[in-house]
Fold this protein.
Amino acid sequence: MEMHFSDSEKMKRFILIVDDEEINRDILGSIFEEEYHIFYAQNGREALDLIKENSSLLSAILLDLMMPEMTGMELLEVLKEEQLLKKIPVLVMTADENSEVDSLKIGAVDFITKPYGMPEAVRARVARSIELFEDRQFIRATGLDELTGLYSKSFFYEYAQMMDRYNPDMDTDAVVLDIDHFHLVNEIYGRDFGDDILREISHSIKEFLKQSDGIACRSEADVFLLYAEHRDGYDDLQEKVSEGLQHLSETPHVRVRIGTYTGVKHDIDMERRFACAKLACNTLRGNFMQNSANYDKEMREKFIFSERIVNDIHDALKEHQLIVYYQPKYNITGDKPKLASAEALIRWQHPEYGMLGPFSFMPLFEENGLVQMVDEYVWRESAEQIRKWKDTYGYAVPISVNVSRIDLYNPNLGAEILAMLEENGLGVEDMYLEITESAYANNAKQMIAAVEKLRGYGFKIEMDDFGTGYSSLNMLFDLPVDVLKMDMRFAQHIHENPKALQMVSVVMDIAETMQVPVIAEGVELQEQFDLLKERGCQYIQGYYFSKPIPADEFEVRLQNDV
């Protein structure tokens, strides 16, 4: 049925009046004709056809219950089973109070008593029903993720809290699904294919929730959240998602990680529960032997420790809780080893956790960017200590300090380090810069340019952890370095593993070709020392000579070396 309306009429809503009595249709038509566009039907069968044709237009249905061919009650039963049609509010028209109750149970939203009362009251009932219907539609539209049909994040949290409120004794699980490297799927296969993957995963989640009491949402581009009644595990969810992805033609290998926080107490903040589940999910990055992880006591303690460490770093810097230790490096090319330099290594005298080594906190700071603050602290402390030693003994060996990958993005890095040295009356010959091999591999061109700029200031660059496998052979000869520091795992096994000894020889050959000296880290035994010296290694750092020691202990080394 095609209808045309003037501009003034376009804001009118559509209603359907269904009654087998012409007089009733006329009465209702006269009540509503000024405010609504009206369809008419004489029985349930005719009404059903009109509803199917105009479901997107209709704002309300006024339905008589007693009609031939298909009664109003029968029509309500049909509408209840149709997903699209059951959303349209139905007001029944009857004089039978029992029928009113029955129709409301089936799905009617209100009723109009026959004979019809005041027109204003009838219009008000219909207007109120339409208003509630449209509000519900708006809430539904804003509460759903358009791409997947799952809840939006904000509505998800609201409904999850409602689950807690109405089921205070129910054990629940917070579940996070995350797609590994989803941005690469979009880049390689296109966004449309990426959207297909998201829709397929959401479909699998919906299927899973049919057997589990819970709700789900798409939290971020490739992250899904589920809140469900507690269960022993989510392997079946993992299987359902994997099976669903296999249905997509030419599907690349897509890995979905699942993190859970199970048996959650309701007194824990909802968003924190999912933060814990996300933390469990994140522990699976790079672990291809495991696809799911649960947030447990050990993970909780680690999480609390990490939070505390990150929060405490500012006070630690102000109060000088961070202490710089120095590990000597010895030149072994002569008859007698000679102290040549030292590496500055950070320790943290934490007020609660005691003395902490760098591996317990530096990886955290590298993840969140706080490593720059720590590096600058070490540079400044080292420069001031070198100055003290020179004033005391008239002599000091160069100190190597770490430069993190994130530091290299600072265009003023060289000038800032040089300014610290000049403040202490020092030059670039007093401080060497250590950069890990992995830093070169990450955005190699930019890193190489940054390091060349540092060398332009006159700094000597030591490549730390050389041999860990980040550098490609064809990149080696472009690397701007002055010293190679061989990864400690080479030295630790050369006395017992011929292959390790061969690899040391390979590194020595590479260094000779590059015309740079080699420092061997992690040397602990006489056998290791002898083999390295025999292979032509120039410098050694490790427990064979000394562990990392505080500044006052290092002074003894300086005094003995003078």
Q: What stands out?
A: The radius of gyration is 37 Å. The longest helix spans residues 119-142.
